[in-house]
Design a protein that fits this description.
mainly alpha, two-stranded antiparallel ribbon, 4 helices, elongated, transmembrane, transmembrane helix, membrane
Length: about 120
């Protein structure tokens, strides 16, 4: 396992996606704190252009989107950290993929929460 965090975190293909990923995560959690309120009613959890709303559920299930993004962050960065010494391209790819996925999750979360306001 790679043991030098300074080398890992000074790679711009690692720290720049990490900064964006943390900004996307911060946006989702702050937006959830501001606009998602506990309610006894069911809320819309998924919207499809073809079928419209196709998934409804309890209010707390909408928090699975930012939580899933956080899990992707930890998983991808753990794998990236462990393979950085042997394969820098794969490690960099994993960080960029994690940031891109969190971007799409943030946009989807914004739209779904906006659908429920």
């Amino acid at each position: 396992m790679f043991r030098y965090p300074k080398v890992y975190w000074t790679d711009r293909w690692v720290w720049i996606p990490a900064v964006f990923l943390l900004l996307f995560q911060l946006f989702m959690w702050v937006y959830a704190a501001l606009y998602v309120r506990p309610t006894a009613d069911m809320i819309f959890l998924h919207y499809n252009v073809v079928f419209g709303v196709d998934l409804i559920g309890a209010w707390w299930k909408i928090l699975s989107v930012p939580f899933g993004g956080l899990c992707v962050f930890f998983l991808n960065f753990a794998i990236s950290w462990s393979c950085y010494k042997d394969d820098k391209i794969l490690a960099r790819f994993l960080t960029v993929v994690a940031a891109t996925l969190n971007l799409f999750l943030a946009v989807a979360f914004y739209l779904v929460v906006g659908l429920n306001i």
